[in-house]
Write a structure and sequence with these properties.
The structure holds two protein chains of two kinds.
Chain A lengths: L4 H6 L1 H4 L5 H9 L2 E5 L5 H11 L3 E5 L24 H12 L4 E5 L8 H5 L4 E4 L4 H13 L4 E7 L2 E7 L7 H4 L19 H20 L8 E6 L4 E6 L32
Parallel strand pairs in A: 1-2, 1-4, 2-3, 4-5
Antiparallel strand pairs in A: 5-6, 6-7, 7-8
Helix pairs in contact in A: 4-5, 4-9
Chain B lengths: L1 E4 L2 E4 L6 H7 L8 E5 L2 E3 L14 E6 L9
Parallel strand pairs in B: 1-5
Antiparallel strand pairs in B: 1-2, 3-4, 3-5
The chains are: A alpha/beta, B mainly beta.
The structure holds zinc ion (ZN).
Chain lengths: ~270, ~70
């Protein structure tokens, strides 16, 4: 792929980096990254990947923009209230960079649609907010052998890990099944510092860019945790688990299934 | 004996089990935690039976969703 003069100017700060150059930028323009969830994590990831010139960005979400989203989901603006999140996200990514083709999937990721969607992409970013979706993405990426970035945030804490399915530690190596519904923090106990989503979602975008370019060391086999109050990052080495129900020596999960959705009941708090 | 729990040194009685350590460390919702001891994830059903050893490295790994709080 030859870069136009305008592209050489737009991406000049990438191109002057020895590890990227014109060749790397062309790779980015040729790459496809899927973001599952146009929320707190997906917002910064989508904006940075669009700015970076990732040529095709897919985004899945069935939700519409709600007032409570605006504190952290920076891809959506006040004027987007009640708009489909995927349409709102697409408009911002296209506005940043006309080089980017945005594909929208106005649906929830489920066992019956996710494999087909991720198959087309080079890398997947898990920006979902619930455990069934996180397990579904982990399992689907395993069956499709698709590299992805897993992340979670809660209150002032965030964590992420990059997973090369079948090669490096997966989400089920660490957590066998979703937590019981009654253990999931109730709505009043939950909440999240808005900017935390920006920190963790941006780290996920960094991993996507590195993966596409084949540079640096990916965050595989290591869970990176971050606490915004203490400003401490920790790297926790996590080996593959031979007893993993998905990628272990004698797997119990042999086909993709939806996990049950723990319900948060607002009235109970 | 001494353990390193989530990067910090902790002094405990000898032979403490994973379940006892969770209580001692004030983990309120153990269902939300996976435990790694010296690089291996301990199956949940073995928490009661797994005794920790002096110098052991323990990591509590927490479930985290997307922070929206509605799921
Ligand atoms: Zn695994």
């Amino acid at each position: 792929m030859d870069l136009t003069d305008q592209q050489i100017e737009r991406y000049s700060r990438h191109i002057i980096l020895e590890q990227i150059g014109g060749t790397g930028q062309a790779k980015l323009l040729d790459s496809k990254v899927l973001i599952v969830g146009a929320g707190g994590l997906g917002s910064p990831a989508g904006l940075y990947l669009a700015a970076a010139g990732v040529g095709t960005i897919g985004i899945i979400d069935a939700d519409t923009v709600d007032m409570t989203n605006l504190q952290r989901q920076i891809i959506h603006h006040t004027a987007d209230l009640n708009v489909n999140k995927v349409d709102s996200a697409r408009a911002k990514m296209e506005a940043i960079n006309p080089d980017v083709t945005v594909k929208t999937y106005h649906t929830w990721a489920k066992a019956d649609n996710i494999r087909e969607i991720i198959r087309d992409y080079d890398f997947v970013i898990d920006g979902t907010d619930n455990f069934p979706a996180k397990f579904l993405i982990n399992d689907a990426c395993y069956f499709e052998r698709k590299a992805f970035s897993h992340a979670g945030i809660l209150r002032f804490d965030g964590q992420l890990i990059t997973i090369l399915p079948g090669e490096t530690t997966c989400y089920r190596c660490i957590f066998e099944t979703p937590p019981p519904a009654n253990a999931v923090p109730s709505c009043s106990q939950a909440g999240v510092l808005g900017v935390l989503a920006g920190v963790i979602g941006s780290l996920q975008a960094t991993e996507a860019v590195k993966y596409v370019l084949g540079i640096g060391e990916l965050l595989t086999g290591v869970l990176l945790t971050y606490n915004a109050l203490t400003m401490q990052f920790r790297r926790i080495n996590l080996n593959r688990n031979p007893n993993c129900v998905l990628c272990g020596d004698s797997p119990k999960i042999t086909e993709l299934k939806d996990e049950e959705q723990p319900v948060c009941d607002l009235k109970k708090d | 004996m001494k353990l390193v729990v989530n990067g910090s040194e902790v002094e405990t009685k000898d032979g403490l089990t994973v379940s006892e350590l969770l209580v001692e460390q004030n983990v309120k919702m153990p269902e939300m935690v996976s435990v790694e001891v010296d690089g291996q994830i301990v199956p949940r059903e073995d928490f009661d039976a797994t005794a920790l050893k002096d110098g052991g490295k323990v990591e509590f790994l927490y479930f985290m969703g997307g922070g929206g709080g509605l799921n």
